Amino acid sequence: MEGATYRCPACGCQYAALRPRWRCDCGSHLDLGPGRGLGRGEIVAGEATLWRYAAALALQGPRCVSLGEGWTPLVRRRWHGAEIFFKLESQMPTGSFKDRGAAVMINHLVEAGVGPIHEDSSGNAGASLAAYAAAAGIPCRIYVPAAAPRGKLVQIAAAGADLRAVPGTRQSVSEAALAAAGESFYASHNWQPFFIEGTKTLAFELWEQLDFRAPDNILVPTGYGSNILGLERGFDELERCGEITARPRLFAVQAANCAAFAAAWAAGADRFVPFAAEPTIADGIATPRPVRIAAVLRALRRSKGGVAAVAEAEIMPALAALGRLGLFVEPTAATAGAALSNLLQDGTIAPEETTIVVLTGHGLKAAERIGELLGGLHPPGWIGPGSEPQETAERP
Ligand SMILES: [Zn+2]
After folding, report:
1. Distance (Å) from CA 14 to ligand 1 centroid
2. Pick from 70-84, 110-124, 374-388: least confident
């Protein structure tokens, strides 16, 4: 395949993607040019991973690293009387959707001959990149918030990465990683366009699993927006190849306590609008300053979807309701269930439409915290953290 090209959305500069580079000389992030697209005849049907769509990926050669990512289940469950499709991205090799992006990005970085890498993450992307770097034999350092769920930190350490816990906000973590950009290659999933090249396979999978149709609505928990941009890119390629005629509405789901997209959306703005960020249990989407905010807002508007911000008090009940459907997810992913309830209730989404809820991260990532929080809800018969001491019968 001819080499892919990076394009700067700010100044128009172009660069060959095979030279390691994480941003434009002007300081902006870079994008890949339009992809070549995918026809259904090009799918490698026997390949039960995202590599069944290898023909559409902007890599030079065949993959050299894979942990079996992609081709995740799409299961039907009832939600407030409506039939809903839940996409279990939680069933990836490292338990989150990030493996799509990390797998394709690492394969690109290997092709580009990159040496040691580093990255900043709220936890899941770090766990994913650490695993793929380990699989590729690339030394890796991950900056994370000191307050990230312990399960995610353990995952990163277990992959052999150099783990750096940074006190303060998610933004402090990004700044620590940016400061290290001279020491090793900054393989940021939020900056690297090959991460989005990987997440676009989510669109291909949904289309194929729905018998080569696009759904009506897709709800995605959104921090930086890589799934929104991947979905836009993927459905765009399918439309250009004549495989679909209608595009789904994309809904970015946020925790209202830290909702950059909701703030911009409410203001009718096409770029970042200052807002007050509060702590949220949806740690995976607590993003005060998304890198590609303008592109994500544009994708949402183009799709005729929107932004759905859910209150903190709505998240754990949604997590518990998903759990009772057999779907154990982390609080970040549960925001999509809460948003679905709201969008069904206010009529934005009709029950007869084909609606996808993307469950982005597994509950085992944050099992301890979930146990504490569920205890606070006191479901009937709950015995565990937060439950009242059990009365024991007197022995005769
Ligand atoms: Zn530029």
Report:
1. 8
2. 374-388
Ligand 1 center–CA 21 separation, angstroms: 12
If pLDDT is split at 50, 70 and 90, which confidence band does 396 have?
very low
Nearest-angstrom CA–CA distance, 385 and 368: 9
Q: State residue 40's pLDDT score.
A: 98
If you measure from the C-alpha of residue 358 to the centroid of ligand 1, how many angstroms do you get, rounded to a whole number? 33
Band of the pLDDT at 315, cuts 50, 70, 90?
very high
What digits encode the pLDDT tens for the residues 213-272? 999 999 999 999 999 999 999 999 999 999 999 999 999 999 999 999 999 999 999 999
- Please tell me the distance between residue 236's alpha carbon and the centre of ligand 1 in angstroms: 24
> Percentage of residues in the chain with pLDDT exceeding 70?
94
Question: Separation of 28 CA from ligand 1 center, angstroms?
Answer: 5
Q: What is the mean pLDDT of the chain?
A: 93
Q: What is the pTM of this model?
A: 0.93
Gap from CA of 191 to ligand 1 centroid (Å) = 13
Whether residue 6 has pLDDT greater than 70:
yes
CB 282 within 8 A of CB 342: no
The residue among 248, 206, 222 whose CA lies nearest residue 72 is: 206
